[in-house]
């Protein structure tokens, strides 16, 4: 064993003794015919062998990182199709370079957490004006810097199963949707549509059924196949040259008492690389239509 490990036999014996003293159990039983594993030693070896293998793999990974450094490009975002599309464009453009690409899509709370915990360098979030000040205080307390990009009017989004899809309306009262199911999704607005805002900006109760979903695929599957509706932002400038979702209509809410704000976040102590700065620059161009 000492020859295989390229070390002197006394040093190996001392290492084994020290380990046994630390564990408070004998790993080997010493006999006149040699050393054999104790019952504890057999159990210890069962757990130690894979840990040692992982340790060696980790060392190899570290050596590879030192010899072949890679840049990381990590984004966390709420469900915004134009952000997703832009990430794909960046991947296609920089795929030949040594870059680790990460794209996380989740609710605003989890996007903030991903940036705070360094799972992502950048975060793209949508905030309702109803909770904007609360969110800004929260972000400041977490050491996260928020930069607004654009203000968006709230829209009712529907599919072809809803009769309002075919009416080519410039706007629509939210109360007109009371007879249809509402889809509460993880995207833009987390207030129950059974509530609407009165003239003082306070929530007042209205009737209506609710379907809660936790992912974008289910949301749009419901819109395509039912007469249900949801509330969303709709930055038409970002989709000026490329439609977000076919056969989905976005109708502005008439006289809304709130709006949405799209913004991006980073940690206060982070320094953005060139690729992150370029990504933000392109996001700004998209939402502002320049």
Record the SSE blueprint:
Blueprint: H1 9-23, E1 28-31, E2 34-37, H2 39-67, E3 71-77, H3 81-94, E4 99-105, H4 108-116, E5 122-128, H5 132-141, E6 144-152, E7 154-159, E8 182-184, E9 195-197, E10 203-205, E11 210-212, H6 216-225, E12 229-233, E13 248-252, E14 260-267, H7 274-288
Parallel strand pairs: 3-4, 3-5, 8-11
Antiparallel strand pairs: 1-2, 5-14, 6-14, 7-12, 7-13, 9-10
Helix pairs in contact: 3-7
Overview of the structural elements:
There is one protein chain. The chain has 290 residues and is α/β, with parallel strands linked by helices. Helix content is 35%, strand content 26%. The chain has a 5-stranded mixed sheet with strand order 4-3-5-14-6, with helices on both faces. The longest helix is centred in the N-terminal third of the chain and has 29 residues, at 39-67.
Which terms summarize this structure?
single chain; 290 residues; three-stranded antiparallel beta sheet; alpha/beta
C-alpha-based Rg, rounded: 28 Å
What percent of residues are in strands?
25-35%
Q: Strand order across the biggest sheet?
A: 4-3-5-14-6
Order of helices and strands: HEEHEHEHEHEEEEEEHEEEH
> Number of DSSP strands?
14
Low-confidence stretches: 187-195, 198-205
- Main sheet specs: 5 strands, mixed
Note the overall shape. Answer: elongated
Helix content: 25-40%
Separation, N- and C-terminal Cα atoms: 69 Å
